[in-house]
Fold this protein.
Amino acid sequence: MRITSPAGTIEIVNEPTYSFGSSDNVRAYPLERHLAPGSGMSSIHGVLLNGVPMAVFANGGGASGIHDNSAVFVNGLLYLAVGGSVVCMSVSPMDVRWSLQVDSATCFGVHYDQTRDAFLSHGELEIARFSEAGAILWSSSGADVFSEDFALRSDFIEAIDFDHRTYRFRYEDGLPLAA
């Protein structure tokens, strides 16, 4: 995944064989951060700026892959899904601001609605809205995992679960709307 920023091209890469503290890795990252020390590492994602490794993050729980919704860049900050968490960082200068567990299993994607200035995570078990400062504003769940479609609509957030049930949540408070 590539994102164009004022600092240059940010690239998010999957690093499934990366070993923290090892000199035998394909890339050497100056910053290594395990978001859930003591747990396994099912998701390992690296952040490069203009081809230069900047930071690598790992998390346990369900694995999160790299795709178009793995990260968003808003107001000079990168918001990256890693396992069940979102990491917020500045890329120039590099600085990790916070990490926040947004789902008890896996965060499938990070989304931003500019009109509402709303950050949202599409989790396996929860849809959550979080603040720029790294606080959960609300979190809502459904009857099954949200493994199907997810969309930011003009008046609501729409998520579809494994059994193809459609859920619509209000941006303001996460309360459900009739589908």
